[in-house]
Amino acid sequence: MSGFQDLDFARLPPESMLQRASDFLDELNRRRSVRHFSSEAVDREVLRRCVAAASTAPSGAHKQPWTFVLVTDSALKEQIRDAAEEEERAFYGGRAPESWLSDLEHLGTDAQKPFLADAPALIVVFAQKNDGEGGKHYYVNESVGIACGMLLAALHHAGLATLTHTPSPMKFLGEILERPANERAFLLIPVGYPIDGCQVPVLERKPLSEVLIER
Ligand code: IYR
Q: For residue 104, how far is its CA from the centre of ligand 1 (angstroms)?
């Protein structure tokens, strides 16, 4: 895999560029973190293609330093739930400073994580510190973070709901899923459909004027 080839780039008419940008914004603006999943199964091929989309992300030296573990087995999901809840009980029961807990209050979260067993699929994203055979990886957090963003967008675009869940610490995920020593759990993403009548916290997104500086 070396050399150069023609870039496959579609130049769009200017009118359609603004429309596409607006449509995409509207679509992403409807994405919400969901904490109440129905157990309805999802099409595995849809999930596979979303992971394939995520894996098109740019990465340091094109090392693609990620592994996605798709968990649908009920016993494994229960095991992950039990281990996550153990960490979360410690987090909510004293490990987290009061200021952190107060910042979380509006989300209504606690140590109970039923969604880890209810959601039909968990995608556990692992970051590879190196290739495990003496080869280096670069900008691993940036690369895997970008891939996760693309995964969330792809899943949302495909009509699925997600949660970005980070039980802390996440070491138990590598153990339960038997990942090699060069991989570290990066993000746990429950995927599926929201329960009927699913509620989400009222929140506002920062306006563009607050997040964009033009000079
Ligand atoms: N991991 C805990 C706490 C938590 C932390 C942050 I930062 C959040 O945005 C949400 C929750 C939990 O999942 O409950």
A: 7
Rounded to the nearest whole angstrom, what is the distance from the C-alpha of residue 116 to the centroid of ligand 1? Answer: 14
How far is the CA of 41 from the CAs of 61, 122, 141, in angstroms?
37, 12, 31
CA of 122 to the centre of ligand 1 (A): 17
104 Cβ below 6 A of ligand 1: yes
Q: What is the pLDDT of residues 149-187, one digit of tens each?
A: 999 999 999 999 999 999 989 999 999 999 999 999 999
Domains along the sequence of the chain with CATH: 39-194 (3.40.109.10)
| Among protein residues, the one whose CA lies closest to atom 7 of ligand 1 | 104
Considering Cα of 145, then 147, then 148, then 153, what sign does the dihedral take?
A: positive
Measure the CA–CA gap between 102 and 22, rounded to whole angstroms: 35
Short-list 184, 174, 73, 173, CA closest to 119: 73
Is the C-beta atom of 35 inside 6 A of ligand 1? Answer: no
Q: Is 107 helix (H, G, I), strand (E, B) or coil?
A: helix
Question: Strand 183-192 to strand 66-71: parallel, antiparallel, or no bridges (unpaired)?
Answer: unpaired
Neighbours of 75 (CB within 10 A): 8
